[in-house]
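Tip: read the tokens left to right.
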């Protein structure tokens, strides 16, 4: 079977299941199988594919077709910032809006060496990306999921930041024996009642513990703000990713906890998706 025939088979199988990204998904799965870029793959369409590879391709295709399993979990791979990260369904798939937050923090802290706490590290995407850029910085990464922490450690080793990050299995509410220059967090922020409305690829595969933000979606956000008030150094920065539409409420919680907003980060649709704030000096 030729490569072009396999792409066609993939596209038709996924189309039948109403998967909108049928073309690109088939190409990505195949490119991964050959360990090549999509672009390179597409110029060798007459290549003959071995039986083993065809079998493997069909298995991956079925995983995508059956319940819309995300490509990142099927391939155990996600590119984020400058890293290639291992992911599986124990961790949230890192999102582009989080990269926008990284971008802002890197521009603010370039040539400085802040001590950074990442609350709810998941795959480790935030702390790893920051430390890759801020070469003299050190980090602490916490999560309540031991499985997520194992993946974060693996990713840090792969991306050469492991020796500068302390990983700890603990909740944001736990005791911290030191203070930080920067606290960054992308906490779970989806209201519990809304989880059932999420798309299948999120609802059926991503860890609930990474999504569920309690009754109003703000349970963990509140805890992060409350804790940051106590463990952020003077002039330190809290960088918090929030859900679309949560800005007004979170802004109020920040004010109530003596934070002063410094920067807002918007996503590609211009929605406010991160708030960077410092402790009010008059506090
Ligand atoms: C939305 S995911 C973010 C993962 C990663 N930082 C990212 O940006 O892709 C939230 C993470 O917070 C963790 N988490 C949930 N509740 C927590 C808590 N109370 N304390 C610490 N981590 C928590 C979850 O296990 C999950 O890994």
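Filled-in amino acids:
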């Amino acid at each position: 079977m030729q490569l072009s025939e396999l792409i066609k088979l993939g596209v038709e199988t996924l189309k039948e299941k109403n998967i909108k990204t049928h073309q690109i998904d088939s190409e990505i799965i195949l490119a991964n199988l050959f360990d090549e870029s999509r672009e390179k793959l597409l110029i060798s369409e007459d290549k003959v594919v071995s039986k083993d590879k065809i079998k493997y391709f069909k298995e991956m295709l079925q995983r995508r077709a059956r319940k819309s399993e995300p490509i990142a979990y099927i391939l155990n791979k996600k590119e984020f910032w400058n890293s290639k990260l291992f992911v599986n369904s124990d961790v949230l798939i890192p999102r582009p809006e989080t990269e926008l937050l990284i971008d802002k923090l890197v521009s603010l802290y370039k040539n400085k060496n802040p001590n950074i706490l990442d609350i709810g590290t998941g795959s480790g995407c935030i702390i790893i990306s920051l430390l890759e850029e801020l070469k003299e910085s050190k980090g602490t990464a916490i999560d309540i999921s031991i499985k997520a922490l194992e993946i974060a450690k693996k990713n840090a080793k792969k991306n050469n930041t492991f020796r500068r990050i302390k990983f700890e299995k603990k909740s944001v509410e736990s005791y911290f024996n030191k203070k930080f220059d920067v606290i960054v967090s992308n906490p779970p922020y989806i209201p519990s009642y809304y989880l059932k409305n999420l798309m299948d690829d999120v609802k059926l595969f991503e860890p609930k513990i990474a999504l569920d933000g309690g009754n109003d979606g703000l349970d963990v956000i509140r805890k992060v703000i409350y804790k940051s008030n106590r463990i952020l150094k003077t002039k330190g920065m809290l960088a918090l990713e929030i859900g679309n539409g949560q800005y007004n409420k979170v802004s109020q919680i920040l004010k109530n906890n003596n934070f002063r907003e410094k920067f807002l980060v918007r996503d590609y649709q211009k929605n406010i998706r991160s708030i960077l704030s410092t402790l009010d000096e008059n506090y």
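The CA atoms of residues 153 and 239 lie 22 Å apart. The first strand starts at residue 78 and ends at 80.
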